[in-house]
Amino acid sequence: MAFDTQISTLNITPCMYKLHPGDSLIIHPEDNNIYIIIQGLLIIHQTFSNGTKISKCIIKNGYFINQLFQSRQIHNYFYIVEATNISYVLTISHKDVFNVQKVLILHKNQLLSSRNVLDVLIHKNIKERIVHLILMLSELAGRSSNNYIFIDIHLSLSTIATIVGSSRNTVSSIINEFRKNKLIAYQKQKIIIYDISKLLSHRSI
């Protein structure tokens, strides 16, 4: 039985959000709801009260967001879930959480649809981090066509900078270098990979 069909058989009233590229969900410590990604590719950012933002993971269809905050702690941060394409997110009230636990357990394999941003940050060089991010996104949202790979999401330079832990200017400079070398195209916040083998040569790990 499909996941959405099983949800419909339970005595719960879910709420569906439709997010466009650049839209965000804000999750605060007192929010105990479950958020299930029905469709889309989104990025979870941890945002602190001093304005610092750290990207945690990239999530897609089937992932569920639950228990982001450690209990019995004073939290000086919240989470921003940023959509990179048209995304649909199902919200289940914490009052209905116990009714849906069985479904979540049954679907735990398909619900673990994410990539940890730490896999990007293990690279010391910012250029290597950007390469790894582009390759990761190509696996998650890439579509092959002729001799190139089209990554079907919108990703701003500022968001890329947040993910790789750098500045927007540095990211812009590296992206422009890749464009001049005809490794990728970057236009209207979309990425096309022209030469994946040459792109791989920039990654040392």
TrEMBL record:
Domain called HTH crp-type: residue spans: 124-197
Alphabetically ordered keywords of this record: Chloroplast, DNA-binding, Plastid, Transcription, Transcription regulation
GO annotation, biological process: regulation of DNA-templated transcription
InterPro entries: cNMP-bd_dom_sf, HTH_CRP, RmlC-like_jellyroll, WH_DNA-bd_sf
One Pfam family per UniProt: HTH_Crp_2
Top-rank taxon, per record: Eukaryota
GO MF, one annotated term: DNA binding
SUPFAM superfamilies: cAMP-binding domain-like, Winged helix' DNA-binding domain
SMART domains per record: HTH_CRP
Identification of the protein by name: Global nitrogen transcriptional regulator
Organism taxonomic ancestry: Eukaryota, Rhodophyta, Florideophyceae, Nemaliophycidae, Nemaliales
